[in-house]
Amino acid sequence: MDLYYNQVKAKLKRKEQVSAAWLHMASNVSAEIMANAGFDAVVIDVEHSPVDYQTILSMCQAVKGTGTVPFARAPWNDLIALKRISDCGVMGISVPYVNTRKEAEEAVARCKYPVQGVRGIAGSPRAAGYGMNLGQYLNRANEENLVMIAIETVEGIKNLPEIMKVEGLDGIFIGPMDLSASMGMTGQIGSPEVQAKIKEIEDIVIPSEKFLATVANDAQQAKTLYDKGYNMLVMMSDAIDLAKAAQRTVNTFKEYINAKMN
What is the mean pLDDT of each run of 10 residues along the chain (262 residues)? Predict the structure, then answer.
């Protein structure tokens, strides 16, 4: 078996730039397409999509051998969910809605085997090669698998200096939509008030040893954020970008038909 190694985590530890795409469609086909396109990582969305554990596994299989690393956004900071997602073979997990140092410590512990954590250990899952890669995986998973947590509330920002002290926490993901909602300004991500809160996070994380991640509307916005010091940007979605392309095509057709009728 090849050495179990997470090249995306290695890049992020060096504070380099990483490209990523959401997988919202619960589809191994779209996972394969995104991976073949060349993204550094794809993020299986287990929080806001209909994906189940079997689907996570098939999506990880779909990206194998492409050079793209499979990550997942967990549905919650839950021991069982984090264990089962990890066993499917993802190499990084984003834990949503973390607000305190204690919650961040729990997230890290639930993603790591003892003695560093409390993740249940077994040789049978896909992650461990169905029993054929025990030494490589079980001995290296704690070091190679990435753990980031999402800061997406005012409370989380207030507690961020303490959260940053958590050992084994690799990075911070900013969730701008939930942050705006926690401020009573749902969807107003570009407002000065929300941007000021985002800057508070940036000022703490960017100079640190931990990486900073968030979403970007497109590759152009990603360039701006990379220049600010972000390290990982999720700049595309299989579902949202397909919807945009479909809508553009239909609108162009309707404009054509209306022009002919008039």
Answer: 90 98 98 98 98 98 98 98 98 98 98 98 95 89 98 98 98 98 97 98 98 96 98 98 98 95 86
Measured CA distances, 106 to 32, 49, 90 (Å): 32, 24, 19
Cβ-based neighbour number of residue 235 at 10 Å: 22
Dihedral sign, Cα of residue 119, residue 125, residue 129, residue 133: positive
Residue 223 CA to residue 221 CA, distance in Å, equals 5
Please report the pLDDT score of residue 1 as a whole number.
61
Residue recorded with tokens 């607000």: 99
What pTM does this model have? 0.96
Q: Which residue has the tokens 């509307």?
A: 217
The one catalytic residue in 29, 37, 38, 48 is 48
Residue with tokens 């993603």: 111
Q: Is 48 a catalytic residue?
A: yes
Q: Are strands 211-215 and 146-151 parallel, antiparallel or unpaired?
A: unpaired
